[in-house]
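Friendly challenge for the regulars: who can give me the structure tokens for this chain first? No prize, just bragging rights.
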Amino acid sequence: MIIGSGLLAHGFAPCFADRDDVCVYAAGVSNSSCVDAAEFERERLRLQLALDNATDVNAFLYFSTCSVHDPCVFDTAYVKHKMDMEHIVSEHPKHMIIRLPQVAGRTVNPHTLLNYLFAKISRSESFHLWCRAKRNIIDIDDIVVIVGKLISDSLMRHMTVNVANSKNHSMMEIVKAMEAVVQKKAVYVEVERGDEYAIDVQQIHPFVQQAGVNFNDGYLEKVLGKYYEANSR
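First reply, four minutes later:
Bragging rights claimed.
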């Protein structure tokens, strides 16, 4: 079963919508800049209800964020909220908490990093580029196949797992890759801000191999082309 209607929910629906033994909780606050306590409380109540109704499933999936490792944002309201939700989910006997980085996919959500960059570059609008920041990009389709392998392993229950690319990219690299897709030069002001934080993906290495996902040097360009090339014409 799937709970939610956004990018993650649509991505997991083809494989898991009709499965009664797995609950994929893909709902909640989607804007990492949110500071609205009412929005956070709404997710808490919905999540608790989902947990109460899914006590017998073989796997209860909750999606959190790799930003818990980011020194620039780990103390924000959004990240603190996600940590609180992780604690609630951890009480489920068959839980799996999947922490994700920046997810690439087809979504109208304007708050994602990639949608923001695409909009700014395609409209020739100026933005601040954080020179010291690095981000981790992964395709929603790759998340689905990797998590599918994780679910099939009963030893992965009661786990909190980073499902992410094995390589981080500087914001400059991401902007340059988006420029190539949009075929426009970005208009930006370089700002000496941001940081890089390590995401430990050793735990998922065998599952990535089983899924046939290859985080090679051309991965970023391939993923951006997949989701943004047609929209730039």
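The chain has a mean pLDDT of 92. The chain has one domain: 2-232. Your move, everyone else.
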